[in-house]
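Cross-check.
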Amino acid sequence: MKRQKTVKPYCDRVSERERRDIVTALRNIVFLEDDETGEEYCEVNDILDALDVHTDVDWTLGRDEVERLIDIVNVPQNGPRKYKLNVKALSEWMKRTHTTQAELAKLAGVAACMPNQWLNGMKEPRMSSMLNLADATGMSVYDLIEVDE
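Predicted model, tokenized:
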């Protein structure tokens, strides 16, 4: 019997930061008012642009539908979250590219001992190092960080 591959829903695959960016973009959409009914609406392309999806669809959505989208994407904050390096993703990249810790240190612009401390969970990289890692690896900063539970 073949096992079916389970795919996580989109809302479970985006980071908290991406969710906040999407909600902000959706809230900043400009609504038009229908002259006959007075109902507010926006074009679907505005929603797709807010979600950074590009297509040739030319429909409209009502304000209620957009509010529902915001509710689906919006996740209540229970206080500040702490983020940490996604060691698994960085380790996999290092294996795939045959990059040593010394080479990684050079790419990130840090002392040679820092990657070892990051990969063993003794220290977390500073934001400047995270940005350098993202540039060096070609990975998104969102892929390099994870929520520290």
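The beta strands are 32-33, 40-43, 60-62, 83-85, 145-147. The first strand starts at residue 32 and ends at 33. Passed to J.P. for a second look.
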